Amino acid sequence: MTQPIFLVGPRGCGKTTVGLELARVSQSQFVDTDHWLQTEAGETIAQLVEKEGWARFRARETATLMAVTAPGTVIATGGGIVLAEQNRSFMREKGTVIYLCAPVSTLVARLEASPEEGQRPTLTGKPVSEEVSEILAERDALYREAAHHVVNASLAPEEVVNQIVTALRLACVS
To answer: Largest Cα–Cα distance of the chain, in whole Å?
Structure first.
């Protein structure tokens, strides 16, 4: 693998978990844009958003995406990275975009099983199930527009990685 692989999808779809495993099996580097951004800023996303607002955070997110994009890298993106058309185009042009698609029920179960308090502020102020449903309804078309491949992320991480590897191999053949 030489082109970067961008993993997109909503919170709870497994971008970090799948990304780490995909990087391991493909002997690639792994970067999580949210973690990278927080390390660079020295603050959590919740702190950044509270202090600077969503617009400034989204600008930081775009700068982070461009900074971490490199050959041979698996990149787990923030769930809202697709909101900017510039980011969708950038990822499609610079690498292969994989949408980790999962039903709302799976996303909610995962988020409730391991909440990351303080990591990411609520987007709507509503309960998790309502928020996930609303955000996915708003963003699903954007994830699909950005993606070269859509995979079923409701499976075990190893199975999701197998789907990605298969899709990438088939893309090389055609």
So the answer is: 48
Q: Which residues are part of a known binding site for ATP? A: 12-17, 120
Distance between first and last Cα of the chain: 16
Measure the CA–CA gap between 160 and 151, rounded to whole angstroms.
Answer: 7
Q: Give the burial class of 54: count Cβ atoms within 10 A of its Cβ; 0-12 exposed, 13-18 middle, 19 or more buried.
A: middle
pLDDT in tens, 98-141: 999 999 989 888 888 876 644 555 556 677 778 888 889 999 99
Binding site residue list for substrate: 34, 58, 79, 139
Q: Tell me if the pTM is above 0.85.
A: yes
How does pLDDT run across 19-54, given as a tens digit for each residue? 999 999 999 999 999 999 999 999 998 899 999 999
Residue ranges of the annotated binding site are 12-17, 34, 58, 79, 120, 139
